[in-house]
Structure formats: structure tokens, C-alpha cells
Amino acid sequence: MFTGIIEGMGQVVDMQQEGTNVTFTFTCPFTNELKVDQSLAHNGVCLTVVSIDGDNYAVTAIDETLKKTNLGQLKVGSKVNLERCMPANGRFDGHIVQGHVDQTGVVTGITEQDGSWLFDFSYQPTLQNITVEKGSICINGTSLTVFNSEETSFRVAIIPYTYEHTVFHTFKVGDTVNLEFDIVGKYIRKMMGGTAGFNPLN
Question: pLDDT tens digits, residue range 10-63?
């Protein structure tokens, strides 16, 4: 389990196609603290460390992951947000993040506001995922608070620290991002029948 509090950024240094899978080699500031078989979220996608070589480590993404997340768009030099799984004795600073991306979304607007930034996102409603005002959303593995919640769009505010220490500073309008919706909201929606038009605030 993760919390959506990003520890650092990794950078792709190599990619190898292996059948329908891709093995990515990354470098990151804490490679020396990793171990093989460890779970590590990359842009919010939980992947297993399969090898470590000096400052580099490797993970393998299967075809399903490549198709349903933005990892399939990575190339050598691309940066990703990284978070190790939460220790049992750790503080819970974000929200419950499973590392299982629900769908992708698109950056539709970026507004600078004298030191902070507003990011607008849209997503397809076909999977019936929802956001709620002041609820939680995980974007590329980053735990954030939603506002301007609409049926297929929402906005988040980014403080300077988050902007500088995550991949948000690389975003451009039109970029694809990974979205993991709040697990509590997904359970409630399931119990309510998952009907389109369901409004948890009514």
C-alpha cells in the first residue's frame, strides 16, 4: 500500500522489449536503499524491482499495464514519480493508494497563480469513476485534493514544493497522466450499483 507522498523522481536510462512486456531500467536518488522483490510505485503504478546494478534498478511492465497507463509512453530520459510502499510504522500523510491505476486522464489546463499552480484534468466516463469536491485523487502517484469536481473533469492545486519535486513541472496541456480514484468512493459506487449519474453528495 502507498500514501501518494512522492519520495523522489526516477529517470529512464534503458528500455528492453521482451515479448509483449517492457523492462525499464531507472536511476533514482535512493537506488542503494532498494532491494529485489520490493514494490515501488512509478507514476502511481506498482511494479516489482527485478534487479539492481549500481545506481540503476530494473522493473518489468506487462502488456496490460503498458496499455492502461502512461508507462507505455515513456522513453529514455523520461522522468517518473517514485514512492516505496508504506512501512507499517509510518505516518499516513496522504490517502490509501493501492498502486493500481484505474484509467488515464489528460491535462487540459495549467494556470500559474503567483507561486502556485492550478492543473485541470479530464477523463473518459466510460469506467464510471468519480471524484467528489475536497475528495482525494492520485495523479501519477501523487495524492492530491480535488476541487471543481465535475462528471468528467476536476482541478487540483499544486504548491511550489510539489511542483519542483514531482513530475508536475514537466506537464504540458495534452499530456496523459495515470489516475487512481479514491478506493472508498469506488466501494461506495459498487454498493450503490455503479449507476451512471450516481451522486454521492445527494
Answer: 999 999 999 999 999 999 999 999 999 999 999 999 999 999 999 999 999 999
As a whole number of angstroms, the distance between CA 87 and CA 148 comes to 33
Q: What is the mean pLDDT of residues 138-154?
A: 96
Q: Say which residue the cell 511550489 belongs to.
A: 160
Burial 99-109 (b: 16+ CB within 10 A, else e): bebbbbbebee
Q: What domains does the chain contain, in order, with CATH numbers?
A: 8-84 (2.40.30.20), 103-191 (2.40.30.20)
Backbone phi and psi for residue 196, each to the nearest 5 degrees, phi listed first: -60, 140
Check whether 186 has a pLDDT greater than 90.
no
Q: What is the mean pLDDT of the chain?
A: 91
As a dihedral over the C-alpha atoms of residue 70, residue 3, residue 30, residue 103, rounded to 10 degrees, the angle is -10
What grid cell was written down for 33? 536503499
Residue 194 has what pLDDT?
A: 58
Which of 122, 130, 124 is CA-nearest to residue 175?
122
pTM given for the model: 0.86
